[in-house]
UniProtKB/TrEMBL annotation:
Boundaries of every Histidine kinase/HSP90-like ATPase domain copy: 303-393
TM region positions: 12-30, 36-56, 63-83, 89-109, 144-164
InterPro entries listed in its UniProt record: DUF5931, HATPase_C_sf, HATPase_dom, Sensor_HK_TwoCompSys
Pfam families reported in the protein's UniProt record: DUF5931 (PF19354), HATPase_c (PF02518)
Protein name stated in the entry: Histidine kinase
A biological-process GO annotation: phosphorelay signal transduction system
Keyword Kinase: yes
Residues spanning the signal sequence: none
UniProt region (Disordered), positions on chain: 238-264
GO molecular function, one term: kinase activity
Occurrences of domain DUF5931 (ranges): 1-169
Assigned keywords, A-Z: Kinase, Membrane, Transferase, Transmembrane, Transmembrane helix, Two-component regulatory system
């Protein structure tokens, strides 16, 4: 039944209340001119109301049911001359159906949209006006207020029902995106714990051994980067936000966002700061999910990564490949910068600090230490890896 269920229940309540109202009017008028016929029409209305209350939700408002509803309602409306005197009808007395006549307009609007609701209202309004005109009412004095209200009811209800269906579809897509994101994240974790680590080991060991093994290691490094990119889930885009979708967030969750940014108000997705470092010789790989850090922490990590890549440009041969890998492991966010250069000679960092060259000591170690993180540098003739680790102080969306 979906989102239409509440609409059908509301229409059923409206029809029941309208039948009761029509019966009260009939009783107060003493049965109109023909009491037996009047109560027979009321029975037909009550029976059809009970039938449609059960049929609409289960039959999903098929065209045969909609047309039958319109025909039965129009028939009850046009039976007014059998119940009421000609003078009463021509004098503007409400027909036997009273407000019950609006049921099909509401049903058509919910089932087929505002145009169908308007069409149904037009047919019923035309039947009402023809009835009054055929009973001697002057054309110039025909009441149109009821027709206008009926038309507006069909259009408005149809429009609201259409908006509700669109919202339901957006919610369904959001749930699918969230489920797909969770599955890809699960696969990414499994791949990281097995395949990616093996490929990284092959790349490192192949470079250390040299010869044909070095070429095998290089290919393993390329496949590691490609695989990381494959399991990465893009961050939510502005287009999705405009459609009511919010990436991997559930349909009932909202994140506090800065206009044009990808995270909560005082948080920054570290991936957005690392991606600009990507180039023909630098591969940037990030996990499937956002890596939110406080703005200050994220920018310091990004600057440290930039300093590490600057060192690759300065101290390695032109065209030396480098890789930047970012991930969240429990309560820490780790970023490693790996290159395939000649490595850092023993004592080189200490000598550079003594000579006043503080590229590593301040731009990397100092930055990370100031934000409560750690730096680990591993170097050999096969290359250098600088691993930055900082507390994951904002690794999840804020939900309100």
């Amino acid at each position: 039944m979906g989102i239409e269920g509440p609409f059908w229940r509301a229409i059923a309540v409206f029809r029941i209340a309208s039948v009761v109202y029509a019966a009260i009017l009939l009783a107060r008028a003493g049965g109109y001119g023909h009491p037996v016929a009047g109560w027979l029409v009321i029975v037909v209305m009550a029976t059809w109301t009970a039938f449609t209350a059960a049929a609409y939700p289960s039959a999903r408002a098929s065209w045969p049911l909609l047309l039958a509803d319109l025909a039965v309602t129009a028939g009850c409306l046009l039976s007014a001359p059998l119940v009421q005197d000609r003078a009463a009808i021509s004098g503007g007395v409400m027909p036997i159906t009273a407000t019950w006549v609006a049921g099909p307009a509401l049903a058509w609007g919910v089932a087929r949209g505002r145009r169908a609701g308007a069409a149904s209202a037009a047919i019923l309004s035309a039947a009402d006006l023809w009835l009054r005109g055929s009973q001697g009412m002057n054309f110039a004095s025909l009441p149109v207020n009821g027709a206008v209200l009926l038309f507006l009811a069909g259009v408005v209800v149809g429009h609201v029902a259409q908006l509700a269906r669109e919202a339901e579809e957006l919610m369904r897509r959001a749930v699918q995106l969230e489920a797909a994101g969770r599955e890809r994240e699960r696969l990414a974790r499994g791949i990281h714990d097995s395949v990616l680590q093996v490929l990284a080991l092959v790349q490192r060991r192949g470079a250390e051994i040299g010869g044909e093994a070095a070429e095998l290691g290089r290919l393993a490094g390329e496949q590691e980067s490609a695989l990381r990119a494959l399991v990465q889930v893009p961050a939510p885009t502005d287009d999705l936000a405009e459609d009511g979708l919010t990436g991997q967030r559930g349909p009932r969750q909202r994140a506090l966002r800065v206009p044009g940014k990808g995270g909560p108000a005082d948080r920054v997705d570290l991936r957005d700061l690392l991606r600009p470092y990507g180039s023909a010789r630098v591969t940037v790989s990030a996990p499937a999910t956002p890596l939110f850090l406080s703005a200050g922490t994220a920018h310091e990590v990004g600057a440290a990564v930039g300093a590490a890549l600057d060192n690759v440009s300065k101290h390695c041969a032109e065209g030396t490949r480098a890789w930047v890998f970012a991930e969240q492991d429990g309560e820490a966010v780790t970023v490693s910068v790996r290159d395939e250069g000649p490595g850092i000679p023993d004592g080189r960092l200490e000598q550079a600090a003594a000579d006043g060259r503080m590229g590593v000591a301040r731009s990397i170690r100092g930055r990370i230490a100031d934000i409560g993180g750690t730096v680990e540098i591993t170097s050999s003739h096969a290359g250098t890896e600088i691993e930055l680790s900082v507390p994951a102080d904002a690794g999840r969306w804020w939900r309100v």
